[in-house]
Amino acid sequence: MQVAETIAEIRACVARARKAGKKVGFVPTMGALHAGHASLIDAATARCDYVVVSVFVNPTQFGRGEDFNRYPRPFEKDVAICEEHGADAIFAPSAAEMYPRENLSWVTVEKLSEPLCGRFRSGHFRGVATVCTKLFNIVCPDVAFFGQKDAQQAVVIRRMVADLNMPLEIVICPTVREPDGLAMSSRNQYLSPGERKDAAVVYRSLSRGRELIGAGERNADVIRARMQATLQEVASVSIEYIGIVDAETLEELDRVRGRVLVAVAVRLGPTRLIDNILVDAPPG
Amino acid sequence: MQVAETIAEIRACVARARKAGKKVGFVPTMGALHAGHASLIDAATARCDYVVVSVFVNPTQFGRGEDFNRYPRPFEKDVAICEEHGADAIFAPSAAEMYPRENLSWVTVEKLSEPLCGRFRSGHFRGVATVCTKLFNIVCPDVAFFGQKDAQQAVVIRRMVADLNMPLEIVICPTVREPDGLAMSSRNQYLSPGERKDAAVVYRSLSRGRELIGAGERNADVIRARMQATLQEVASVSIEYIGIVDAETLEELDRVRGRVLVAVAVRLGPTRLIDNILVDAPPG
After folding, report:
1. CATH number of the domain residue B12 falls in
2. b/e map B6-34, b = 16+ CB within 10 Å
3. Same structural domain for residues B123 and B228?
């Protein structure tokens, strides 16, 4: 497995693979890899002949006061996980390699970047869309793999790729969970043992929402209220949002219909956690 | 020569060329081709093995009240010029092919889009950057060719390509002029015979600026005032701007130094004309 720190190096790696007729898969990450990322690498190696994993904590997607500086960077462990799951190359650039001068060029995705996390993380999706554009232009993959865990990111990136005719396919892979339902996240390691136990309430609240829809409840306010009650069973949780939104447009729903994204963001102490499930509301 | 109207068709053409090991050149245009465009196609055929010319009047780079609807679309003449100059394919999509749904994803280039034409054409460079991104992602060229005539566009596109790591080279070709110095432009055909004669004053004013710098004048206000006096010799001309700016940052200069972009925008009746020259201020 190659570890490339420069754009020229990773481009040379991919060019060799492509020359050999290989299909190139790409898993963009911020490192601190866990079983969720590993499942993306597995999906990529299953579908592609040459798999690149990028490890880059992208400064432009963090807001002021967010956790850019303390975001975990266990690089040697990340390399081991990539190797173990059959990645062919890691692209691990420095911030100076990715942003060698003041960045003036930005990719924005209107409307889809505004609700849910967009209300709480100003500029976040602009940073995500811009760095993904850069990474796609550097790696030139045939397929890129993202996790459903970051549901709004998945919707934003899919739309960006479609609107801007980017020549690659986007595959969204299911969220990987701990036994108690907590979605795998690099930020889970910020949690104290008590917070970690409390964090399971996030998935319990999502499951409550799914049950209600399955039982025929169509009033989104009722579902939100029940989910809120579930979250409030744990005193340490403060709710940022509970979204019952159209899975494609991310517009808040009054009545549940079609494919629905049920999404939650909370704070547990200083740690921000997000999670979501997709639910197909049965007709009628 | 192929004429492709769909994204799938032009991608198939380029894929065949690339499979045959050909270097792909690209000349994006809005059609109404003239000798300036022809020189871009000539530059492309000289440097590349397979040359695509796009002909697309891009709605997103026109403001309200601008000339989108009456912009000339002499498609058969355009095809003949492309053929004559050795282009291998024309990509001439419909607006619905390029924008099949509400476009939510935009590429913006901060700072460089704001001065000069940016002050008078709100959203113009966002539309240009976005459509060029789309076209680059569709055609996937090795090299794309633009004219120096649209100096600010050239600076914006170069910076966008650098910032976003787009995998192509940008070549800027010299402005082609009529015998009286008027820069070739598709919009010149809007001019009445009298306006056409008057229009030569634009290049005379630029030449005046260059002479002054060559003669050692370093005070940009003095140069602007002399250029303004030259333009005002023609009563039908109304001045939009006279820019004496850094050729890279487009920042207005007080003292002329280094590589300077001398740029003018005027209106002659309803017709907006722009032109510019690059001048290297001799040291001292």
Report:
1. 3.40.50.620
2. ebebbbebbeebbeeebebbbbbbbbbbb
3. no
